[in-house]
Amino acid sequence: RRSRGFSYKLPIKTVLKAIKLLRGRFANRCAIVGKAMGPWTLAYHLYGSEDFLCDSLLEPDKVKAFLDVLKEVTILFANEQFACGADVVTIADHATGDLVGPNAYRDLLLPVHREITARIEGPAILHICGKTLDRMEYIADSGFVNFHFDSKVDPLAAMEAVKGKISLSGNINNVETLLYGNPKVIEEDVKRIMAAGVQVIAPECAVPLRVSNTNLQAIVTSVSKLAKENQA
Question: Is the CATH code 3.20.20.210 the one for domain 6-171?
Answer without folding.
Answer: yes
